Amino acid sequence: MASIHLKYPATLLFLFLATWATAQVDTSKSGFGTYFFEGDEVVFEFDRRTYEHAVHNSNGKVVDFDDLDISNVAVTGNFNNWSKKGWKMRRVDANRFQVRKHLADFKDAPNWEFKFLINGTYWATPDADPKRTSILNMYDLKNPDAPGPMVSDTGNVRFYLRGYPNATHVILTGSFNNWDESTIHMKKTSGGWEIHLSLAPGIYEYKFIVDGQWTEDLANREKRRNQYDTYNSVLRVFTVVHFDLDGYHEARQVVLSGSFNNWDPNAIKMRRTETGWRAELPLIGGKHLYKFVVDGNWITDPANRRVEIDLEGNHNSVLFIQ
């Protein structure tokens, strides 16, 4: 099964290989809707190309998606009491809309039903069935015992702010400490300000507060717009995970495939060991689905009892990194 080995470089992991930076999510896709997890957030994504029909939410009239001029999209479900307004989504390109929500918004239920609401009037549906809903599977995703940030000279992540020699004090704040504005004081150096933190694998947002003035990290090109119409810098912390499959000594080839590489059946070839097969790859925190492909046959991890069934009926092994 997958075993976790924490091997962080003692520098800030802003960027990794582009192929990994775009793949570290657990995506559950079907004709009924899309969502994925990024760190401690659930991201709902609506893509108009997925759907052929829409159903009027009051009279049940079915229309073709090609006939709709989509001005706004919202997601609504039993997590927001099927609100008529829903959670408004942001347009990300000509076809897709997204909205991000923290795990805390979903309380403790293991599953949630949801739909996409178009222009406040139409349900997006794959098969003209107005009763069809999508299922968001939280599957024990939350871990209240996950470690928080700890200031340490040997911490795995180094935050550095260049310049500001005349500043009196600089505070680091972010999603890792609930945006506390007073607890993490950075240390002045000859060239700027720095601090080391011990952080679990995951995706975090952060900013610096220089003598009361908030600023993003200008040395970090990855950022997200926030509710104040400014930007938060984004940090991705990876850990090396070893995936092991015992046995299958007569197999010609074993491949690791999962949500972390869009289920590519050829990309991550495992190597032979004395006991079976092994592969290593860097992953961020959160939930990941995976399988082994043994000479073309897809199997779940025999050593991992945690299995999830997706909307198409496929059984996948589940790995949580906290």
What does this structure look like?
Residues 4-33 and 142-146 have low confidence and may be disordered. The protein is an all-beta fold. The chain is flat, with a radius of gyration of 22 Å. The protein has one helix at residues 18-21, and strands at residues 2-5, 26-30, 33-38, 41-47, 53-56, 62-64, 73-77, 87-88, 90-91, 96-102, 111-118, 122-125, 134-137, 150-151, 157-162, 170-174, 187-188, 192-198, 202-210, 213-215, 223-225, 231-246, 254-258, 268-269, 271-272, 276-284, 286-294, 297-299, 307-309, 315-321. The protein folds into three domains: 33-132, Immunoglobulins (Immunoglobulin-like, Sandwich), CATH 2.60.40.10; 150-236, Immunoglobulins (Immunoglobulin-like), CATH 2.60.40; 239-321, Sandwich (Immunoglobulin-like), CATH 2.60.40.10. The chain starts with a strand and ends with a strand. It is built from one helix and 30 strands. Helices cover 1% and strands 48% of the residues. The strands form five sheets. Strands 1, 16, 19, 20, 21, 22, 25 and 26 form an eight-stranded antiparallel beta sheet that branches.
Name some characteristics of this structure.
322 residues; mainly beta; Immunoglobulin-like; 3 domains; 7-stranded antiparallel β-sheet
What's the topology here?
Layout: E1 2-5, H1 18-21, E2 26-30, E3 33-38, E4 41-47, E5 53-56, E6 62-64, E7 73-77, E8 87-88, E9 90-91, E10 96-102, E11 111-118, E12 122-125, E13 134-137, E14 150-151, E15 157-162, E16 170-174, E17 187-188, E18 192-198, E19 202-210, E20 213-215, E21 223-225, E22 231-246, E23 254-258, E24 268-269, E25 271-272, E26 276-284, E27 286-294, E28 297-299, E29 307-309, E30 315-321
Antiparallel strand pairs: 1-22, 2-3, 3-4, 4-10, 5-6, 5-12, 7-8, 7-11, 9-10, 11-12, 11-13, 14-18, 15-18, 16-19, 17-18, 19-20, 19-22, 21-22, 22-26, 23-24, 23-27, 25-26, 27-28, 27-30, 29-30
